[in-house]
What we know:
Largest sheet: 4 strands, antiparallel
Helix content: 40-55%
Bound molecules: copper (II) ion
Strand content: 15-25%
Number of strands: 4
CATH class of the largest domain: Alpha Beta
Shape: globular
Order of helices and strands: HEHEEHE
Structural class: alpha+beta
Number of domains: 2
Radius of gyration: 19 Å
Number of helices: 3
Amino acid sequence: MRTYAVYSQASFIAALLVFGAVLLLSGCGGDTTEVAEVDQFPDHAKVRLGITGMHCQGCIKSITEAVEAIDGVVACKINWMKNSAVVTVEDPAIAPKIIEAITGMNYGAELDEA
Ligand SMILES: [Cu+2]
């Protein structure tokens, strides 16, 4: 019985760890990714956008892919909780193109000047 108790405690902890890892990987449990703090491209210009109409991870994925497919876009990080995106670009002049791509998919998008 004692062995069983130790075993089940260990597997319980293992299960917790796996659960935590799944949460982290899936990005569930609230968006803890602070876009401003994780800047992989500090030397590049940023276009900050407010985006409306996103309702699931699928929206985020398709917007991210569409924006990153635009010539001159280096990366697109969307913060679902804040309804915002930070797009790393070669030249901020392509901002209208980015907005066009997003609104073309029936989401709202506008430049966030703040
Ligand atoms: Cu969706």
